[in-house]
Structures are given as C-alpha cells and as structure tokens.
C-alpha cells in the first residue's frame, strides 16, 4: 500500500474536535476561521466552481472494470503500480490511474485499501472532469469525515479512530489562522505605538500614567 499523506493522528483528532460542522468553522482559543470549499481551493489550488459530482457507484465501478478489463475492483496498489512500473498506457488511462491514486491516498482518503467507487463516475467522460467542482467535493468529503470522527462511529456503527479525509487541508488551515493572527497582532501593536507616539507629542496630558493607560485601551480597539 502506498504511503498516504500522514499527519499525526492525535493532532488531527484534536483539530477535528475544534471544527464546528454546523457553522463550518475552525475554532481555536476563541478564534474563528471559515472552513469551506474556498479553503480547500486556497490550500490545494484545485478547481473551484462548476458542476457538482453526481454519485452513481455502480455506473462508475462498471466503467472502471470495463476500462481495465477487470472482473473485480482491485486495490489502490493496482493503479499505482501501473504508474510506478511505467506501463505503456494511453494518456486517458494514465490520467485515470493517477486520479484514483491521488483521490484514494490524499484528496479523499479512507481507511480502506480499495478505492472508493463514489467518484469513479467522474472518469466516464474525461472531457467533463475539468468542469467538476472538485473543491466542493473534497470539502464535503472532509467535513463528513470530521462529523463521523467526532461522533466516533461510521456506517453500521463501527468505531471510527482515524479521519477519512484530507487532513492536510485542516492542518494548513490552522497554520493560516495562526499566520493571520500574527500579522493582525503585529499591525495592531505597531499602529497603537505610532498613535501613542504622535499623540504624546501633541498633548502633555498623556504624560499622566492614567491617561496613557486609557489611551492604550482605546487604541487596542482600533
């Protein structure tokens, strides 16, 4: 099995517990950052907007089996090996193999060693792949995985201990939140200091500690 994009499980579980699936926000220490398909687009740079991906497991599965002359759905390794071993493949087949590996191991991963049949219908007409709102699809996959992880159960009430979604997006979103806060704090402190300096030159009243304290309180609200 090919290594997936691994983020420490304990960290991801902690982060998932700080996602409000109702408001679609990451909440840490009272700070909020919207988490939606735009977040996925900004982090991964994949297409946003377009058509929603319809889900028809049977049609998608039947197409993949027919395309690669298979009788049963193979594990993810089958598609990865075709790329890794540099087998002679048509461009369309190479693209399909790459997308199945990318979706199964990074964009829409799950705990199974077999690819999901949910998105296979997307490859039935490759001319329309670029028109699919992949940011929305990956977001919905991830937010559903977060919901299941927080509930602790999945289908058939089986225990859930790992996040079946692109944990990389969550991790980078948290980093962006910290970066935004750092920049905001920097400019607030810089602006507050500049305003204090100018005002102190204008009026000697601010030499009084009580006046300075009051000013700082007001400046921090700007």
Keywords:
disordered C terminus, 222 residues, mainly alpha, 53% helix, disordered N terminus, 2 domains
The average pLDDT score comes to 75
Helix content estimate: 40-55%
Specify the overall morphology.
elongated
Q: Helix count?
A: 8
Task: Annotate the secondary structure layout.
Layout: H1 9-16, E1 19-20, E2 25-28, E3 31-34, H2 37-44, H3 57-67, H4 76-84, H5 91-107, H6 134-151, H7 167-202, H8 209-219
Antiparallel strand pairs: 1-2, 2-3
Helix pairs in contact: 2-6, 4-5, 7-8
Task: Characterise this structure.
This protein is mainly alpha-helical. It has a three-stranded antiparallel sheet, with helices on one face. The longest helix is centred in the last third of the chain and has 36 residues.
């Amino acid at each position: 099995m090919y290594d997936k994009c691994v983020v420490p499980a304990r960290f991801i579980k902690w982060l998932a517990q700080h996602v409000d699936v109702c408001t679609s926000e990451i909440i840490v220490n009272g700070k909020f950052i919207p988490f939606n398909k735009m977040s996925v687009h900004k982090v991964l740079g994949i297409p946003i907007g377009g058509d929603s991906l319809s889900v028809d497991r049977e049609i998608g599965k039947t197409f993949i089996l027919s395309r690669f002359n298979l009788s049963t759905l193979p594990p993810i390794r089958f598609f990865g090996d075709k790329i890794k071993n540099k087998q002679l493949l048509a461009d369309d087949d190479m693209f399909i193999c790459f997308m199945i590996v990318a979706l199964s191991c990074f964009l829409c991963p799950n705990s199974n060693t077999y690819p999901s049949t949910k998105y296979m219908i997307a490859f039935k007409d490759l001319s329309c792949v670029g028109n699919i709102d992949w940011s929305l699809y990956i977001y919905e996959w991830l937010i559903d995985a977060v919901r299941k992880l927080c509930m602790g159960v999945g289908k058939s009430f089986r225990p859930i201990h790992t996040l079946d979604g692109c944990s990389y997006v969550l991790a980078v979103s948290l980093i962006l939140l910290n970066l935004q806060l750092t920049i905001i704090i920097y400019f607030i402190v810089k602006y507050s200091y500049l305003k204090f300096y100018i005002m102190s030159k204008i009026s000697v009243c601010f030499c009084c500690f009580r006046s300075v304290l009051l000013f700082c309180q007001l400046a921090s609200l700007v």
